[in-house]
Amino acid sequence: MEKRPPLPPFTKESARVKVQAAENAWNTRDPFTVSLAYTVDTEWRNRSEFVNGREQVVELLTRKWEKELDYKLKKELWAFTDNRISVRFEYEWHDHSGQWHRSYGNEMWEFDENGLMQRRFASINDTDIKEEERRIK
After folding, report:
1. What is the pTM of this model?
2. Which domain of life is it from (predicted)?
């Protein structure tokens, strides 16, 4: 069975480690690598899109990073319980025209006993920024 430590139940320290691991993985911008942190039947709400399973995660992330160029993400632990973690995040990216954006949001994560994320619900808002306003590099 796949295991992705740290495993629930989470402590403050293990939740922070889990959040940092997620940030690191997403900053690779490799959809397949990112998908391995999720159960094969994972359920997502990402903005207004609903995704089920790793294959659809890879498809969503591939589309995302084809559009969101030079993506750079920062996550912060917000709260945790036994097998759930809540984070706030922001990321910066530019589109094909060169316009920079900052995206803000919150995610709620639920993990199985093996430390794989089985549910991810993300609310995300975008704002245009100038390149010199970037904070995450």
Report:
1. 0.96
2. Bacteria
